[in-house]
Amino acid sequence: MISLVFAGKLFWLLHVIGWYVLRLPFDRRARKSSLRVDRKKGADSIRLGISLMGLGILPAVYVFTGQPAFASYAPSPWLFALGTVSGVSALILFRLTHKALGKMWSVSLQLKQDHKLVTTGIYKRLRHPMYSAFWLMALAQALLLPNYVAGPAGLLGFGFLFFSRIGPEEAMMQEAFGEEYSQYRTHTWRVLPYIY
Questions:
Q1: Phi, psi for 83 (deg, rounded to 5)
Q2: N or C: which end of the chain has fewer CB within 10 A?
């Protein structure tokens, strides 16, 4: 029987691979698109780097080396189960967001030359379901990796990106789409239905 530590690491790794496979075709398409607005440089590059550190680099170091060993604790079957559910939910939500966005998707604060406001599919109720998926991914990491550094690093890294980017992103959308975006905001939630 495999240990819960190994199972958590394996599921985290499979989750990251699944995320990459889902995103790859959209990333390739996005690189070929002409941009109307590009705010990736500067502050957004720093935000993305900090998020990558928490959701990718620190957990990968733990998964492949077991370090920092001093921060490890005994795994829990309940946390593993909840982490698995969170991880699967994140991948489903990633798929739904990418499908709804199609060619409008970008990794950063960018708008395509012919950008249209997407308000269908998962975007009918949530303005930022991609962020919802990342919160679930970060939660899965915290639950699957029994390490006080690597586990919560995703919540901290992505949390920094989210709370420092959500305002500028909504301002960019308001500037680009005006009254259409104002109306859209009146009947949608940011990332969590009925709460936020």
A1: -65, -40
A2: N
